[in-house]
Write a structure and sequence with these properties.
This protein is of the alpha+beta class and 167 residues long. Helix content is 46%, strand content 15%. The protein has helices spanning 3-16, 24-41, 67-83, 87-97, 138-153, and strands spanning 46-51, 56-61, 117-121, 127-134. It has a four-stranded antiparallel beta sheet, sandwiched between helices. The radius of gyration is 15 Å and the shape is globular.
Length: 167
């Protein structure tokens, strides 16, 4: 697996999927779009959008999700807020450097290197919120977020990560 190429692709996604502004109303609108995608595609997914300070400004859990999904979203949130990268981006970097969560002095109960968390970054470079999802295989969690952000922001040309790759 060429992790460097995958990392460059994810960096491109993170660069393209930036916001001019992001308010609580924007969180509601994005979250609503994500829930509509969940329902239309008949998937089971938990969705959370939190400000960088941890305040939850949108949350949804479909019928077949549970508290374990919330625990995964918390760990993904922590990873994104620490690394300032999508959680899949952090995962790929960990594969490149061969450093897992514990090498960073972190605990698996609080952090996780897997897809499903994405920073809400303003064009000026600042991260203001983080969107997390849980219940699909982790690369598909990442792809779901990327597709929803692209739809919400009305941008095209966002490169896709192969959802069947083994990361």
């Amino acid at each position: 697996m060429d992790y460097q190429s995958v990392n460059e692709l994810i960096l491109k996604q993170e660069e393209i999927l930036q916001f001019e502004h992001f308010t609580n109303q924007d969180a509601w609108n994005l979250g609503k779009l994500m829930v509509e995608e969940v329902v239309q595609n008949g998937i089971e997914l938990a969705v959370c959008i939190r400000k960088l300070n941890g305040n939850i400004i949108f949350q949804y859990a479909s019928e077949k999700t549970n508290l374990n999904n919330e625990n995964w979203m918390n760990r993904k949130f922590n990873t994104v807020s620490l690394t300032e990268r999508s959680s899949l981006g952090a995962t790929v970097v960990s594969k490149i450097t061969k450093e897992d969560v514990t090498v960073q002095g972190l605990r698996y109960t609080e952090y996780v290197f897997c897809g499903g968390g994405f920073p809400i970054r303003l064009r000026n470079g600042g991260i203001v919120a983080i969107v997390t999802v849980s219940n699909l295989p982790h690369v598909k969690d990442h792809a779901f977020i990327v597709n929803c952000l692209a739809k919400y922001l009305k941008v095209s040309g966002v490169p896709d990560v192969d959802v069947d790759i083994d990361i």
